[in-house]
Each structure stands twice: as C-alpha cells, then as structure tokens.
Records
---
Amino acid sequence: MKNPKLKITKRDLPHWEFDGAVYFITFKTWQRLELTPAARQIVLDACLFFHRKRYNVFVLVVMPDHVHLLIHPLAKEESQESQEKYWSISSIVKFY
C-alpha cells in the first residue's frame, strides 16, 4: 500500500481511521433495549448486507443489546467520484 492516509475525528473519544486497516467495532441498542431473536436476525442481516461489497466481515456477534464486528473496509471502485479511496467507517456504520 503506497502512502496510506490517516484520518482522525473526535466525538466522545477520538476515532482513528487508517486506509486498509482492520477495525473492531461495537455498537449498542438505544437505551440498551434487549432485542428479540427476530430483531437480532434483522441486525445480523443488515451487518452482512455489504459484506464483500464495501467491507469484509471477519467476525460478527449479535448480542441481546449490542453488536461486535471485526471488519476490513474495501477500496472503492475507481468509478466512484469520492476523494476517499476506501469506504469510511462512518459511511459503513450509518447503515446499521
């Protein structure tokens, strides 16, 4: 990989993105609401929707009130007009 790009954003904690890196992501339900088995299946399907299209999923665990993912964002196709070479974590997570 030539000249990887480091992006740093800040919310409650700093978020570092490095082109071509693998990320461990955790997100939780609103007010730690416990999901039914059917709702967990919907979350699982949503997390896998862009698998091999925008990112590769290595590990995915859907717990009753939160999710853990280990993913690798993929490079965007050259036809994309965005200046970002890889799918950003924020663009990936906003779909969950």
---
Amino acid sequence: MSKRKRILLMLARGGLSQADVAAVLHVSKRDVSAASRMIREHGLTVDDVEAMTDADADGLFVVPGRGESGAGYT
C-alpha cells in the first residue's frame, strides 16, 4: 500500500491528529495536510479510500500542470 493511501486511510478513519499521523507513518506534516485537504475537497469516506488503488490515491496529490514533487531528482 502506498504511503499516500495509508495517510488517507488513517485520516479518514479519524481518532488521530495530523501530527500523530505524520509521526506514526514517518511522513511530513505537509503531506498529511494535503491528504486532509483531499478528503475534504472530494468528500472521501473510509470505504472510498479502501476501494482506491495506490495509483488512484497518489493521483489525488498531483496538481495539473505540475509534475510529481521531486520528479527531477534521483
């Protein structure tokens, strides 16, 4: 399961703060904040996130006209 999907799932399930989710998954607070925004903007439920593929979840974070963050780095 992709890290972004795990973030979405933890937020959709509730019970943890964004800071807690970031600490548990060892991700940035910025990524957790972006995931929280995606849940609100798209009205996602736990069932919606569970039904997503990793590619679907990752695709929520891509801004049209911009590449994937860090895409040019190796």
---
Amino acid sequence: MPRPLGELEDAVMTRVWQWNRPVTVREVLEDLQQERSIAYTTVMTVMDNLHQKGWVRREVEGRAYRYTAVSTRAAYSAALMNEAWAQSDNPAAALVAFFGMMSQDQREALNDAIRIVQRDTPQATPPEEGADGTGGGER
C-alpha cells in the first residue's frame, strides 16, 4: 500500500501524471514556479525521492534524467481507498458512510464503475449437461 504523497510530492506527481510523458526536473520546476517560489535542487530532491519510493522510473538523457510515472493517479487513488477500507473494523458501515458523503456526480461515477466491472467479470456458467444427458442434476 502506498503511503499518501506529501504536498510537494503530490504537486510533482500531478504534473507527471497529467503530462503522461517522460519529464525533466527543469520542466517540472518551471511549471511549479508559476505557483510558488521553489529551487531546482528542491524539485530534484523530491523527484529523486519519488524514484527511490518507486513512484517514478528514470532514464538518463544527456546530463539529466527523464522521469516517467510507474502507475496512474487512478491506481494510486484506488490503493489509498482500498487501504482505508481495509483498516475499518466494519467495512460495510465504512462503505455506507463513504457513499453517504458522495455527491450525485460521484454516485453516478460509482454506478458506471460497477457496471464496467460487472460487464468485464466473467459470470458463472450453468452446470454442464451430464454424460447421461440428464443435465447433470439429481432426479
């Protein structure tokens, strides 16, 4: 289970996820500097930490690294939700409380997700017909 990202880690990963391509420290720095004053070395350290934690992979390009996300934001969010749910002593009550906090749009997204999972999950098939042609059941 991933531990939640810190505020600056999340800001960096948000860019990596949104851009969905290999990025350099310089690119992330320049984008972050539109919102805050931050040093190149700070962004470099955060991206190195994210690499050490397994959030990004990196490849050398010239004298710099290009960083790529290992998984998606959706997978990260799902892992956090799963961990929170697993910590509950009453998972059903936790889900009811969670669903109660959802907006109508979130509930619709949940219903869409359930339909997708049900569509993509193989359904149980009826028992095969027995060798004697009786349908395999008792008579």
